[in-house]
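Entry 14. Structure prediction run on the chain below.
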Amino acid sequence: MKNILLLNGNPKKNSFVKQLSDVYESEAKRQANVRRYNLSEMDFNSNLEFGYDDYQVLEDCLSEFQEALKWAQHIVVVSPIWWGGLPGKLKGLIDRSFLPGTTFKFESGSAEPIQLLKGKTSRIILTMDAPTEYLEEQAKPVLEQLDRFTLQYCGFSKAEVNLFGSMIMSDKNQQGSWLKAVKGLGARCI
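Output returned:
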């Protein structure tokens, strides 16, 4: 069975991102091992206070999340885009858990990372309020940060991506079609 890490990256307890995560999980867990993390339930200091200059003790939820990163063959990140970027707490989760020695490392004399999460795949599902014609433009910096400079940097292959919006202009039928699409992704564990 495939090992999937599912991250609901919305710091709000109730959201459309939660609904998308729910339908993905419901389908995927029928044929895969799924470990789900809801950012809203994770209690940690999101500030990497010392950068990499000094060790900062990890909260239990961050230690568990790091173990899930190593365990997973596939990661699914579902997140809103706020102000053209990731929610601050999600950025903090990345800063605090994608650390040298866990997700990548350096060899002396080289700035090129040794990727410690090679052979893994990912999917990024993003929601936003931007008008449909601006979806890709709004998502581009988020995908550069989350996919290219985080996941790929640590060894994941290039992410598959789904963009949903405009949330603010959507109706129940449109949201239903997005939920159906994500349900299909979960059923195929992709």
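The mean pLDDT is 97.
Filed with the rest of this week's runs.
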